[in-house]
């Protein structure tokens, strides 16, 4: 159990007062569950609390990987097996935390197709609420997609709260490099989230998923530690030029991706050496981010990077060489780059509890600011829609 910040012991508070929320995130990298505590009222961040990580076993990872691309009604036993693994690991890590008022449970995305207005996250908040005795906010994306949104990314309203917490009043970009790359542009001077130029968010392209898949297939490793393999190779410029002709990069935001939308890149590097293939995929991620710059309302003062990519020095060097503003890990601000997404779902969990919007036209393309999520209560097993105000 890692503890980056001291956690206060608080009595139970009303839903409208600050409370300790536990966010649980199992991302597209499918490596394990991040869990992090946050003291918040769903509008401002008061304190970051304990955090921890529990990795999936190789068997669990393979089970969850088999569920990728499976939609509801397809392969029910494949989904059931993956959900059992997800529930088991989540229950285990949640036991390490105390004084939790609400759990923000993302579940595991196994399929995402915004063009057809559908997404599939597996994991059941009712089961988790019953197992932990704690209310659970979950199923965050469904209502956004019903309102015409992409269903992703959902962290932008949390990133805006982070900008306030860090006193980042100039335009700043929060870049998350998990399995898929996504950014949030925040300009506090522009006003509230609905104001023009205040918040913009979208998926930039592949994050670490392609590189992680390459490493597992060729080296039996979960990721390219410290970018060592990519750093020993050279990017293939011809392959990069071909991949950058894909229409996604020029499409205006908001826009989002499925984990496997760029799987063509793995086929393109199959004849390269391990080192050159890793270098090419690393460069692809960085160039994808650079291609996002023309979509930003104003040039940002700097970029704050989180997720696994922030710990890859080769990736960070590629980003710095291609972006027009300074690039640094969000760790330099005192925040944990590995736990930021878990913190985000803690924050969103409280917003669900309060019936506050979790997505906006400029972040997902929904028609209007949209509340979301479902709230599962322990013991009764009942579920209430996110528009409910306790």
Please characterize this protein's 3D structure.
Helix content is 32%, strand content 21%. With 390 residues, it is α/β, with parallel strands linked by helices. The chain has a 7-stranded mixed β-sheet, sandwiched between helices. It starts with 18 loop residues before the first strand and ends in a 5-residue tail after the last strand.
Summarize this structure as a short list of keywords or feature phrases:
13 helices; globular; alpha/beta
**Shape descriptor:** globular
Radius of gyration of CA atoms, rounded to a whole number: 20 Å
From N to C, what is the helix and strand string? EEEHHEEEHEHHEEEHHHHHEHEHHEE
Mean of pLDDT: 92
Secondary structure: number of strands: 14
Profile the largest sheet. Answer: 7 strands, mixed
What oligomeric arrangement do these chains adopt?
single chain
- Helicity range: 25-40%
SS-based class: alpha/beta
Strand content: 15-25%
Report, as a whole number of angstroms, the end-to-end distance: 32 Å
Number of helices: 13
Strand arrangement, major sheet: 3-2-1-4-7-13-14
The low-confidence parts are: 1-15, 386-390
